[in-house]
Amino acid sequence: MPGGAVDMEAVGGYEDILRNGDAWLRDSASEGRDGLGWINLPARDIAGVEETAKWISGFDAMVQVGIGGSALGNLMLHGALLPPYWNELPRSKRQGPRFYMSDNVDPADNRMIWNLIDPEQTVFTVISKSGSTAETMANFLFFWDRLKVDLGPKKAAEHVVVITDEEKGVLRPFADEIGCRRLVLPADVGGRFSVLSPVGLLSGAALGISARKLLEGAAEMDRRLAERNTVFENPAWLLAALSVAHYRQGRNMTVLMPYEDALERFCEWFAQLWGESLGKNGTGSTPVRALGAIDQHSQIQLYTEGPDDKLFTVMTVAEPAEEITIPETEEKALVSLSYLFGQSMNSLRRYEALSTAAAIAKSGKPVVSIEIPKLDERRLGAMIQFYEHVTALAGYLLDVNPFDQPGVEQGKNYTYGLMGRPNYSAQALEVTELAEKLSLREISV
Length: 445
Known about the structure:
Helix 11 packs across helix 15 (377-398). The radius of gyration is 24 Å and the shape is globular. The strands form 2 sheets. It has a 5-stranded parallel sheet with strand order 2-1-3-4-5, sandwiched between helices. The chain is an alpha/beta fold. It folds into 2 domains: 8-25 and 214-398, Glucose-6-phosphate isomerase like protein, domain 1 (Rossmann fold); 37-209, Glucose-6-phosphate isomerase like protein, domain 1 (Rossmann fold, 3-Layer(aba) Sandwich). It has 17 helices and 9 strands. Helix 14 (345-362) links the parallel strand 8 and strand 9. Keywords: Cytoplasm, Gluconeogenesis, Glycolysis, Isomerase.
């Protein structure tokens, strides 16, 4: 849809760079270069994941301990492909256990999770490549301690699955020590690109999502992208080019606004993927999460009449899984609502998405429309592979490494120092000095 003029010749001018970038990504992936392994995930063997998932599916509950890429991808898969209010469904209507995510370091959340589960009927999955992520390990140590108290160390180990690096970190030797199940997080796959690895596939498969169909959709998308070598034929090249072109015109925010509740978590997954991959060296556009039609009533005023600093993507699903026809009613006070009678809720939502895109375009702002034919495993797998490819290519155009996170590491190092981790005392001193400077500007209430 038109709106927010950008020089399409400039977009086309990125073609040679994108072609080189795409070739570099694929060559680097085949060489096993760090961070590029996500391209190969659709072809990896998942027999171990499926076997472990089948075992987990017999339990009443599953608690996953992880943060960032070890959490957001799981929640995205579940939100998109499982019925709403999954944990409230009776066991007869669920194909797998209730699911709880322990991500943030929040005592209230962790205690409530523990109070809601029966440890004898629960599996705990801990995910960390290094085993040094403070939040993840703090949460896991809480649950591991409770498990040992209630079940004893030997039986507790039978309720734990570790997903970690094959060689590095503390979780691999921990798994060997206690004798629990272990799956490998590929060394060449970064956390935010890991949803199609055991990190995301295990919980999804345990809850009845087809891991193989997710990977089939991702593989199909990858093949299509590999076959198209012009910027206006290859959708990943085009969206990467549009994103960077608009960024260079001062639109330093990208808004993703699906009109499907099931895709709300997709926005959260995308926000980490985009923000953590591209926000480096003073560059990068800020991801903004929105949900239609809810945010028509909270953000559209800003989007249409606010500053021209955003690129918008409105996302819809052509064939939603459920439908409701809005019923008629005879009360005279409601006669003004007769235009709704007999209409479908999905039609209303579809018209709202179209109207939002049109209103944004009319205001002169740039908007992209994406329609997913149907929200199932195959299409979602394709969308995951697509957005990962777009993100990697945008990083190539911006001349940043989309596969590291130096800003995140600095914050981690400060935390290690403050918590007294050995060899991080200098980091503790530095953050204390910075905090003292900040305190000079505090305002008392």
